[in-house]
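Anyone up for a design puzzle?
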């Protein structure tokens, strides 16, 4: 008997439907001839709690830290025992096992750890499915690979799980116990991703709170040129009173020049005119979709992820959504017209977009070299029954279809002009843009660009008709929203001061993964570290106090982003999991020495932030630091 172990029931059903023969359901599995398909329910196993290694660690004590297992143990999750029993019975009957986890690092871990836990020693094949439609599943079933090829991916995922346990368990216990000494009644959780994300928001809130506005001034002049009029803006010279962004902060020079300009003659001294072509935006990765859906429809990152899972599993309208890729396989290109025609079948807006598509075009989105375990999110081709979709599901589905449809529209062609005029020995800049071919632009509600300038000729004369000074005021940075925070997590290098580290981070995946970023935000809200104020995410007093009390290295992005880079290196056989863990332990011991009750007490007393109730907790006072905080849920929360 061949046993296929899928990551989740919906995937198992899709596999069973693509197998030859009639399907016969049984408890926890589906039989199709000589093949049986069973499934996990997410992670069936989890890292054992500290007391599973030593009963003395059931009680939280500073002198027991760091806790470092010598032989790692996995334990069944409380709700997983029934399904584990089903898999154990089936795997004993199997002469071949097929690993059908999701095609990513975590999917590799989730199923393989179950196979290893069952001590199965027979052959294992790997089934990679990113599209639940029957033709795609059938193609995947015909292209099985030896699971051994994915062992480095498993080792990287396993190293991540163990390192998260070491980091989260030890630092959470250390700062929670230090918090008790400082008078805080509750758990202070620390994680390798959640804490730097909280740090981003706390530092942004501090910058907003400490911001002192100052005025700055723009001088404009209306110019008459040979074929019309335009407005240009003064470019102050370096000796003028400027701020660090080159803005004039003293009005007097602007007023003096404005008084001299009317009637003055000048010349067009620099002219840059060029036609530009802009390719359509690429199809979506999950994070890119979350950013756009938040901006356009006000949806939180978690809501977008939940919608995508329903569109993928329940409605089967899209391909695998937890993707970090924005490119599509080249073999999908000949199928694109059919799949887009199906996706657009029952919606007037989509039908209009479909009519404008030119399927003889090929954009840069179709690129096998850019596709890894996943490809970009795309419509499956199944016609959508919009009566069965919620309004928000419809919005997200249209965004996904639109970005793939845009690949069959011409590039946006614009004519851009930059001009520099010289009057009274001073420089004035003007710029404009005209659209030559809108191409894909009508599919997107983008902001208007600069209006066009009249036709200009290098060296032509100009005359000032009038001038004026606009007073503006510097504005504080905007608070983070779901959209801007997801974007910050994707591009974390922008928030790193060290130029060498910033260069290193340019090619990494940032903070978190496509699948976890939304959950990280929600976790911080649930724990009382963040609150939502309309669309803004603001740190609470508790969240601000924790960041102030922690070593800076724990709450800044460098460590966790470089950690992710090492995990990727392990997956690519360029690093070793044991070496990675030893480096982490050396680091961890140094961090534990920084837990300071006095510093935390002061932070709790002086922290600024949005008022919020304490994070929810359960259990009586004497038990709050024992099993209820070190069981599977505790391990799970410290992962992020």
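Challenge accepted. My sequence:
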């Amino acid at each position: 008997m061949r046993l296929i172990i899928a990551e989740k029931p919906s995937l198992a059903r899709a596999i069973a439907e693509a197998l030859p023969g009639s399907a016969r359901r049984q408890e926890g599995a589906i039989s199709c001839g000589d093949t049986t398909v069973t499934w996990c329910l997410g992670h069936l196993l989890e890292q054992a709690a500290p007391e599973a290694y030593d009963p003395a660690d059931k009680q939280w004590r500073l002198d027991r830290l760091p806790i470092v297992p010598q032989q790692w143990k996995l334990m069944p999750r409380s709700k997983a025992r029934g399904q584990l029993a089903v898999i154990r019975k089936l795997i004993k009957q199997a002469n071949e096992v097929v690993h059908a986890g999701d095609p990513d690092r975590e999917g590799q871990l989730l199923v393989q750890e179950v196979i290893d836990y069952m001590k199965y020693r027979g052959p294992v094949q790997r089934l990679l499915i990113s599209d639940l439609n029957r033709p795609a599943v059938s193609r995947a079933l015909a292209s099985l690979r030896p699971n051994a090829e994915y062992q480095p991916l498993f080792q990287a995922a396993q190293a991540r799980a163990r390192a998260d346990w070491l980091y989260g368990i030890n630092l959470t216990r250390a700062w929670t116990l230090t918090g008790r000494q400082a008078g805080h009644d509750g758990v202070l959780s620390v994680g390798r991703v959640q804490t730097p994300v909280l740090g981003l928001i706390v530092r942004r809130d501090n910058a907003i709170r400490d911001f002192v506005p100052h005025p700055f001034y723009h001088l404009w002049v209306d110019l008459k040129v040979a074929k019309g009029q335009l407005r240009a803006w003064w470019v102050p010279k370096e000796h003028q009173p400027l701020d660090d962004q080159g803005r004039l902060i003293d009005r007097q020079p602007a007023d003096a020049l404005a008084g001299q300009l009317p009637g003055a003659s000048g010349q067009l001294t620099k002219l840059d005119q060029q036609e530009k072509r802009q390719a359509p935006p690429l199809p979506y990765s999950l994070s890119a979709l979350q950013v756009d859906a938040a901006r356009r429809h006000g949806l939180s990152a978690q809501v977008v992820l939940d919608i995508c899972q329903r569109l993928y599993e329940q409605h089967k309208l899209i391909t695998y959504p937890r993707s970090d890729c924005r490119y599509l396989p080249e073999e999908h290109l000949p199928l694109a017209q059919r799949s887009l025609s199906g996706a657009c079948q029952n919606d007037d807006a989509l039908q209009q977009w479909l009519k404008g598509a030119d399927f003889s075009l090929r954009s840069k989105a179709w690129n096998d070299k850019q596709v890894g375990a996943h490809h970009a999110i795309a419509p499956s081709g199944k016609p959508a029954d919009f009566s069965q979709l919620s309004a928000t599901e419809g919005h997200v589905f249209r965004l996904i279809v639109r970005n793939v449809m845009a690949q069959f529209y011409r590039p946006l062609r614009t004519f851009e002009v930059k001009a520099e005029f010289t009057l009274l020995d001073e420089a004035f800049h003007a710029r404009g843009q005209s659209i030559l071919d809108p191409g894909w632009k009508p599919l997107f509600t983008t902001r208007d660009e600069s209006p066009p300038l009249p036709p200009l000729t290098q060296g032509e004369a100009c005359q000032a008709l009038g001038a004026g000074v606009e007073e503006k005021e510097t504005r504080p940075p905007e608070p983070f929203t779901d959209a801007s925070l997801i974007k910050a997590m994707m591009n974390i290098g922008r928030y790193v001061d060290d130029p060498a580290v910033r260069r290193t981070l340019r090619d990494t995946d940032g903070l978190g993964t496509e699948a976890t970023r939304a959950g990280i935000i929600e976790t911080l809200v649930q724990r009382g570290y963040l609150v939502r104020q309309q669309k803004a995410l603001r740190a609470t007093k508790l969240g601000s106090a924790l960041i102030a009390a922690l070593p800076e290295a724990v709450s800044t992005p460098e460590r966790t982003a470089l950690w992710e880079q090492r995990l990727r290196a392990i997956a690519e056989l360029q690093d070793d999991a044991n070496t990675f863990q030893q480096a982490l332990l050396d680091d961890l011991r140094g961090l534990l020495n920084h837990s300071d009750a006095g510093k935390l007490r002061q932070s709790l007393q002086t922290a600024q932030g949005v008022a919020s109730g304490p994070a929810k907790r359960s259990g009586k006072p004497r038990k709050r630091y024992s099993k209820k905080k070190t069981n599977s849920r505790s391990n799970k929360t410290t992962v992020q």
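A detail worth pointing out: Confidence is low (pLDDT under 50) at residues 613-639.
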